[in-house]
Amino acid sequence: MLAELDLSSRIALEDIPEIDLYMDQVIQLFEKKYGSSTRNKEDKVLTKTMINNYAKGKLFFPVKNKKYSREQLILISLIYQLKGGLSIQDIKQTLEGINQRTESGQFELNKFYQSYLKLHEKNIEIFNEDVLKTEQDVKHEVKMLEADEPEELETILLIVSLINISNFYRKTAEKLVDQLAAKKVKKD
């Protein structure tokens, strides 16, 4: 099951062209890289509406001549990763400083993104080990129940446990977003 998740799907720096892309090209890039990781084949990774909403919400700095720069593609990739666990407002808060520094030329977004990609790889290893350990813990708990249909109970308990862990991570991330916002208020 872990292999089916295709967790290694990502947009590497070498996947992002040096030239600016039109919206349709951006969508094609994301579909090519993340299409296999969607839950259903008909699900879209990214749509024009999503990109327009991200732009209107100021999740990345403004587009010039209807073309998206390499930095904007990196930011859209980060937004894609963040949207699974954070609200649009939290994503905006998280990326606001990076957006400002990147747009003004004070920040090398490429290096930051490369660091993110390294952590992404490490996180896959940690996640795989954690899921396998949780699965063993679940099997042990269900065995103690001496219940009929243990496979169904194992699946349900594993789902509940994984969602529980996911909520812990999401709540921690939300607290970090709140800390970012508090630090920004102090600066202003």
From TrEMBL:
Highest taxon listed in the record's lineage: Bacteria
Protein name: DUF1836 domain-containing protein
Organism: Mesobacillus subterraneus
